[in-house]
Amino acid sequence: xxxxxxxxxxxxxxxxxxxxxxxxxxxxxxxxxxxxxxxxxxxxxxxxxxxxxxxxxxxxxxxxxxxxxxxxxxxxxxxxxxxxxxxxxxxxxxxxxxxxxxxxxxxxxxxxxxxxxxxxxxxxxxxxxxxxxxxxxxxxxxxxxxxxxxxxxxxxxxxxxxxxxxxxxxxxxxxxxxxxxxxxxxxxxxxxxxxxxxxxxxxxxxxxxxxxxxxxxxxxxxxxxxxxxxxxxxxxxxxxxxxxxxxxxxxxxxxxxxxxxxxxxxxxxxxxxxxxxxxxxxxxxxxxxxxxxxxxxxxxxxxxxxxxxxxxxxxxxxxxxxxxxxxxxxxxxxxxx
Length: 337
Hints:
Layout: H1 2-13, H2 18-21, H3 26-53, H4 60-76, H5 87-93, H6 98-124, H7 129-132, H8 138-141, H9 143-167, H10 169-179, H11 189-206, H12 211-239, H13 246-261, H14 271-279, H15 289-332
């Protein structure tokens, strides 16, 4: 889907002369390398967080596998469905028991949502509203209203997770189970019951961690997501190193991320490419701006999305062979009582 949209944009709007308008230098190449390094830093942060949350029971190799598998499943499934929830399965296959795996999944979700809720208002304080939500197209002009609604929704969801994980898990369990007894919601009751049981177990497991543990976990979350969003800044610097407001570019990534998360397409493909092209169309001021932004969109998705599709295809076959063969062997081995 993403490649189709990119191809359609190239055929519809791309001007070959754009290549001659770029002043490629060694600095341009260095900024593209920096973009890759920022994604590597993001992956290192995720691996480090997996090791932290498992008390270093995972090796760096195991953490690498889980990170790649998590990114791959998120890339091939709609975020609304929850590709990241498969982290539980990946952790179990790497030797972490089901209860702790569920706890780690909830903690990852909470930390990621907390980053978004904390960083957005801080960054937005320093940027005029008209620079955040430019009105260059119909899709962009609706961003402000949609973003506000989604921010409130995620604030409520994160508050529920905070209370459920850290304060009163049984309260949340009782409220949700009562709510899902309503006729219109009853079909999902068994799923919510399993979710709330896991939430209670997660709360018990988390209680043993110190304040410093959470400082480290959130600090690594800040580094992880900031690195991912700064990839766009680095890519723009490779093509248009003058007159760039980097804080605006970073802030728009926060907004765009929300739309990617709720996109019904796998990994936000198609939607992300088109929205990025429209949202950042005012960055280039030359007559080739439309063509330039399409090229930047392609580079951005290659680094932040298509790369994980490739890594997933390389890692998954051997990981499945190792993990599931091991599980089958353990199941078939007779007891030595």
